[in-house]
């Protein structure tokens, strides 16, 4: 089975936060940040498998610190774990106060992607090899997250059976 180092999937993106990026609290729109997270995570996933990689789930986005117009926002992503055709991608969001230089972890996120062939069928993906302490910790704890993800998906499918698909005005 093919293997790749986590560092081979690492991506970085830094942006300035403009007034059009913030909400009425003068902090970065959560949806805008989530879009940036999905974007950079998809690049890491594609760098691992070199085929089309689609988002299967966003396990979590934990907003830890507000991001303001006086800040820059940096995202770092890399693949932390792989299954047969799926992969877990971690995204770390760092806000930096551009006046003081103070940096804080503003958000973290875990997403799952699946590699697909030309017929949109899942394909095997390379195994990931962690090297840094951060990569190793995320790798060691990934199996637990994968089990929680599987359980949550099963529960979501059961719950969906109770939902109606008609519009309220029908």
What is shown here, in short?
By secondary structure, the chain is α+β, with helices and mostly antiparallel strands.
Protein model, in words:
The protein is an alpha+beta fold and 170 residues long. It is globular. The strands form two sheets. Strands 2-4-5-6-3 form a five-stranded antiparallel beta sheet, sandwiched between helices. It has one domain (3-160): Hotdog Thioesterase (Thiol Ester Dehydrase, Chain A, Roll), CATH 3.10.129.10. It has helices spanning 30-49, 133-140, 142-160; strands spanning 3-5, 11-16, 52-63, 71-82, 86-97, 103-116, 127-129.
Q: What is the level-2 CATH architecture name?
A: Roll
Q: How many strands in all?
A: 7
Over the alpha carbons, how many angstroms does the gyration radius reach?
18 Å
- What does the overall shape look like? globular
Give the amount of beta strand, in percent.
Answer: 35-45%
Series of H and E elements: EEHEEEEEHH
Going across the biggest sheet, name each strand in turn.
Answer: 2-4-5-6-3
User: Are there runs of 5+ residues with pLDDT below 50, and where?
Assistant: none
- State the helix count: 3
Output the keywords.
170 residues, Thiol Ester Dehydrase, Chain A, two-stranded parallel ribbon, alpha+beta, five-stranded antiparallel sheet
């Amino acid at each position: 089975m093919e293997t790749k180092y986590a560092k081979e999937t690492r991506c970085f993106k830094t942006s300035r936060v403009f007034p059009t990026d913030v909400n009425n609290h003068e902090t970065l729109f959560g949806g805008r940040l989530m879009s940036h997270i999905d974007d950079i995570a998809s690049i890491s996933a594609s760098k691992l498998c070199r085929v089309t990689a689609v988002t299967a789930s966003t396990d979590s986005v934990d907003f830890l610190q507000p991001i303001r117009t006086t800040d820059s926002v940096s995202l770092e992503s890399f693949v932390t774990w792989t299954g047969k055709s799926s992969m877990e991608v971690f995204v770390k969001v760092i806000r930096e106060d551009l006046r003081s230089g103070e940096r804080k972890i503003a958000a973290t996120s875990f997403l799952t992607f699946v590699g697909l062939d030309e017929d949109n069928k899942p394909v095997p993906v390379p195994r990931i090899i962690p090297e840094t302490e951060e990569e190793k910790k995320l790798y060691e704890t990934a199996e637990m997250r994968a089990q929680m993800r599987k359980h949550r998906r099963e529960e979501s499918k059961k719950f969906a059976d109770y939902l109606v698909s008609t519009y309220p005005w029908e």
